[in-house]
Design the sequence.
């Protein structure tokens, strides 16, 4: 992008109108990571939460060496739990294996379920098998959304020895949990997972049936 355009975005990020700042962040989609990150940093402490949230997300998409330490600091010390959750999510986008430790700490130590949920999702994005025990604990959470995140993540890290632990959700009252289960089972080409997918393929909810049939087709294609 030419310097004149970058200058315009930079000025827009300093606008008193929060809508201008949001539009400026959105326009960084077309800007290289090296050029975008210095501009994103200008609004990381913005007074408007929506602007901050969008900036944190942008650091997960526009990846430079600077992004990881900034996001870890936000995850570990920002007073707003929404921003901590955003930082956890952005770390998942980075797919940096170093993020396993701070994300695990956030899961165990943060008192807000939204942060713990984002950490669980991102641990799945990392595909790190070390997250298995943590994710198994998440299955015992009181929050149904945590079950969704943990089941999906167990599929992503391909923890085949955890199949029995997630299969207990095949009759969950929440169809989104059953859908996540159907999607996760597509990562495991075993007799148990195939039998469970055939069962879910007859689910009363069409989204669950579609997910189960997709996973079955995926397993057949890859076998």
Sequence:
């Amino acid at each position: 992008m030419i310097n004149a355009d970058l200058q315009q975005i930079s000025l827009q990020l300093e606008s008193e109108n929060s809508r201008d700042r949001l539009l400026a962040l959105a326009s960084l989609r077309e800007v290289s990571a090296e050029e975008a990150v210095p501009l994103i940093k200008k609004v990381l402490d913005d007074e408007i939460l929506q602007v901050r949230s969008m900036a944190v997300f942008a650091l997960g998409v526009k990846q430079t060496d600077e992004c990881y330490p900034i996001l870890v600091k936000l995850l570990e010390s920002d007073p707003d739990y929404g921003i901590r959750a955003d930082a956890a999510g952005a770390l998942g986008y980075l797919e940096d294996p170093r993020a396993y430790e701070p994300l695990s700490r956030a899961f165990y130590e943060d008192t807000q379920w939204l942060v713990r949920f984002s950490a669980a999702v991102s641990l799945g994005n990392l595909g790190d098998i070390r997250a298995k025990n943590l994710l198994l604990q998440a299955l015992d959470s009181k929050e149904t959304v945590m079950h969704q995140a943990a089941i999906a993540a167990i599929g992503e890290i391909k923890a085949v020895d955890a199949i029995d632990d997630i299969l207990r959700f095949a009759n969950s009252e929440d169809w989104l949990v059953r859908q996540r289960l159907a999607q996760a089972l597509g990562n495991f080409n075993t007799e148990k997972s195939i039998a469970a997918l055939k069962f879910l393929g007859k689910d009363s909810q069409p989204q669950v049936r579609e997910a189960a049939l997709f996973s079955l087709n995926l397993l057949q294609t890859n076998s």
About this structure: The CA atoms of residues 24 and 117 lie 29 Å apart. The two ends are 45 Å apart (CA to CA). The chain has three domains: 1-64, 77-158, 168-223.
